[in-house]
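Case study 2.
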Amino acid sequence: MFLPYLFTNAIMLLPKGMIALQTVISLFEKHFWLRFTLCILAGVIMLAFVLISGSSISHATVELAVIGAILLIFFTLPIITEKGVPFPYMAVGAVVAAALVYLRLCMFFYASSDYTNFLAVWVEEMRTLSLADAMSKDIGDYNMPYLYILFIISRLKLPSLLLIKFVSCVFDGLAAFFVMKIVGHFKDSAAAKITAFLLALALPTVWLNSAYWGQCDVVFTSLCIGMAYGVLKGKGNLAAVFWALAFSFKLQAIFALPFLIIGLFIKRIKAHSLLLVPPVFFATLLPAFVCGRSFTDCVKIYFLQANQYPKMTLNLPSIWALVGDVSFDHFGTAAVFLAGAATLVFLFLCYHYRNSIDDQKLITLFFLGALLLPYLLPRMHDRYFFLADVAALLVFLIDLKKWYLPIITVFSSYVCYHYFVMGGHYLIELKYLSVALLVLLTVSIRDVFWQKKAK
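Prediction:
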């Protein structure tokens, strides 16, 4: 008798329960402070979960749990602050974000050879030095803003490995945020925007680069995507500042420079905005100047980076993977001129067809610029398609018919990661990937400049 009575009462209370649930959901959708409280609670749950499930993460510590809680809050904030997002979408997005944070945490204790031989050595050297000595000495071959970050890490008591990866993962979130904002320019759908944010975080080469390898390519990439957002919105000053910051972190920001010039062609930015680039760049060097480092020492890092590793390709499926192990001494200079000439032709086409470049084509041009230079230049490393990986995802999110762009581009990068970082073998020979990328470039150029719109 008890079970039928309980079932009957439950059926009678169901409508009231649904009304109460709808009221709670409505409150969360209207009040940011409730969503923020839930975000904090999710961070606390992540902290407790990491502490409890330490064996599954391996070497779990309190530090890792705190980092996980902070990352979860940081990854969740763009979801709960986006206007017009229904609460169920927020809830699902937060759960996926938690899974992506946990995925990263599982990799935090892996120390790559790059970390062991370089980053860890630089941080340890900085621990024994004052700020003035650390900045004035010739430590490492990274640009000054990242050395500032390493110096701060050297002053903290937490393990440097965790902190270096934490910084990169924070920029994972920033890159995903700008991806979401660009997609939001094309699509008002809350589901589309949240999906864009989460897919950017889930891109394999993104979390492998930051959480596993401990590299910082996402730093300059996130700023370059911010630059693309500024060009798209016609905010020239914002675009120039973001590119200057990206260039101050990494020489590879040069891959995005053609897009800034295209912004001039189509009058999304004005020439005077580019005048902001030098002062912003010099401002990033100011702490080093104050500490006694000369301008020459700060700038020569770029030339040292450009002249390292005299090989046509360094584990990257560039066009030079097609020609085999040829001598850099014989072909290196010619390759640089080829890349420069191809970039000038690309810019000429952009100028010639400038009146037909709409917003969607503009994002495709961002992808083309990010892929073209590393594809043609010599000395390119396995990580140098990173910007192109994220840009390819952007094009796909805006035009779902371009699904093949991120698949081919990201897979090409992943093959290189698999070989170098994971100590595996080439899943497919680089020359075949090089051909696929060449086809991708050709098709994308055709789509932008010569494909007629469907009537």
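Residues 312 and 378 are 4 Å apart (CA to CA).
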